[in-house]
Amino acid sequence: MKNITNICCIGAGYVGGPTMSVIAQKNPHIKVTCVDLNEARINAWNDDNLDNLPIYEPGLAEVVKEARGRNLFFSTEVDEAIDKADMIFISVNTPTKTYGEGKGKAADLKYIELCARQIARVAKDDKIIVEKSTLPVKTAEALKSILHNTGNGVSYQILSNPEFLAEGTAIQDLQNADRVLIGGDDTEEGREAMQQLVNIYASWLPQERILTTNVWSSELSKLVANAFLAQRVSSINAISELCEVTGADVSEVSRSIGMDSRIGSKFLKASVGFGGSCFQKDILNLVYIASSLGLQEVADYWEQVILMNDYQKHRFARKIVKTLYNTVADKKIAFLGWAFKKDTNDTRESAAIYVAEKLLQEQANISIYDPKVKKEQIITDLENLGTLDPEAIHKRITVVSNPYEAMKEAHAVAILTEWDEFAAYDWQKVYDNMMKPAFIFDGRGILDLKNLTKIGFQLFSLGKSN
Ligand code: NAD
Ligand code: UGA
């Protein structure tokens, strides 16, 4: 069996960048080249100042520092990297389709297909192709068809190796993965290709955590894993509203049910709604697959997870308006947090965007502080909604780099992301400088309810009867 000595990864984003960095760190004998069409992104990956890497992830800069220039390279020379590689990971984006059949639900596979056609055009020797992007079940069949029908007569093995890292903990998740999943064909060549990929991961993970399955199980398991995780968040969020009206406390309910080892304690934190680039996209994809196969009850079941999430975001925004005497027009609302979760600068599908949309429609002025998200990103997120007047966005949104400034003279503070630093602020100082009554809406359940109430705040915390 040939040893893999040269890996290429197409797509240097949130998955490609960190994953290839760790593979290179743990396999110094393998040359790993991560390529992307986006020149600015590649330049940022190559920046001497590690603070300028295109992605913020705890621990990432250290890994890049160790491997970059040794056996880890970032480049825009896609053809050259494909040509030299024994194994090619495809880690490009697979967003929800915004046009045509399946619009708003199905995964848009145009970037994947472009990669396949490019590989077929360039490759002059046998390659192992690894699906790292999250894909609808059966995509490997389409890849195979393109590669075999448009290629130079070389042979391909297609593996599915979905990524389970979560943002904010990507490096930890990669270095200490619960499991790595590899799907391949049950043929001699398929088993050999799987073993070659197993060997790469086995350089740092115990063999028993590396699962091999058939390709379809692997592709489908990724969508199902995300659907199950998101379903837990929607389930506890549904219970949060029930807690508010019954006097139960959602964090106590979470703890009580989570201690049952059959339920488990993770992913039971009530919130203003899950965000991120994948949960919604992957569930919609699952819903689309089920309904196009005629499994309408299955589709409806999973769609409810999304509907509940939308409801939670809107409910939080409505609560703010209602509590502020049914009008937020021209009032200053401070947002703490814009990222979809702590420890990342990623804002894709962040609940903050949708809460802001509602409040802007009510003509509120919003002052935003997030430790890692820049103003341009926030404005782009709001403009991309397509539902708001760009002039109103510029007029009513302020982004500041000091949280106390964001909250100064505000009518209300809303916690949208669970950054640790928020709980440690001098809340007495915040209170003294706010309009009265001083309202706080904790969408993440991170503040000390008793202490803040003692200071004088009027506090609403999701899942608690305030
Ligand atoms: P991303 O948008 O951050 O990165 C994708 C990159 O691919 C972009 O930089 C883009 O320029 C590049 N690209 C697109 N087409 C290209 C081409 N033809 N040639 C070269 N480069 C090309 O996306 P991401 O968050 O890294 O996600 C990638 C895939 O991984 C998606 O399928 C996603 O569902 C999946 N995934 C994401 C996460 C996550 O935490 N973000 C976790 C697990 C799985
Ligand atoms: C998620 C999965 O956890 C990863 O395994 C998967 O690889 C990834 O999606 C993907 O395919 O993209 P990620 O979206 O980065 O990772 O982050 P999560 O920690 O899963 O959080 C997702 C959202 O759910 C965040 O908005 C978070 O705040 C929210 N959440 C999470 C809650 O509201 N409550 C919880 O208890 C947990």
From TrEMBL:
Keyword Oxidoreductase (UniProt): yes
Sites where the protein binds NAD(+): 11-16, 36, 41, 92-96, 133-134, 167, 278-281, 348
Positions annotated as active site in the UniProt record: C278 (nucleophile)
SMART domains according to UniProt: UDPG_MGDP_dh_C
E.C. no: 1.1.1.22
Record keywords: NAD, Oxidoreductase
Coiled-coil ranges (or none): none
Gene Ontology biological process: glycosaminoglycan biosynthetic process; UDP-glucuronate biosynthetic process
Residues that bind substrate: 163-167, 222-226, 262, 269-275, 340-341, 444
Pfam families registered for this protein in UniProt: UDPG_MGDP_dh, UDPG_MGDP_dh_C, UDPG_MGDP_dh_N
A single MF term (Gene Ontology): UDP-glucose 6-dehydrogenase activity
Pathway info: Nucleotide-sugar biosynthesis; UDP-alpha-D-glucuronate biosynthesis; UDP-alpha-D-glucuronate from UDP-alpha-D-glucose: step 1/1
Residues covered by the UDP-glucose/GDP-mannose dehydrogenase C-terminal domain: 334-449
UniProt function note: Catalyzes the conversion of UDP-glucose into UDP-glucuronate, one of the precursors of teichuronic acid.
Family designation: Belongs to the UDP-glucose/GDP-mannose dehydrogenase family.
UniProt protein name: UDP-glucose 6-dehydrogenase
Organism: Psychroflexus sediminis
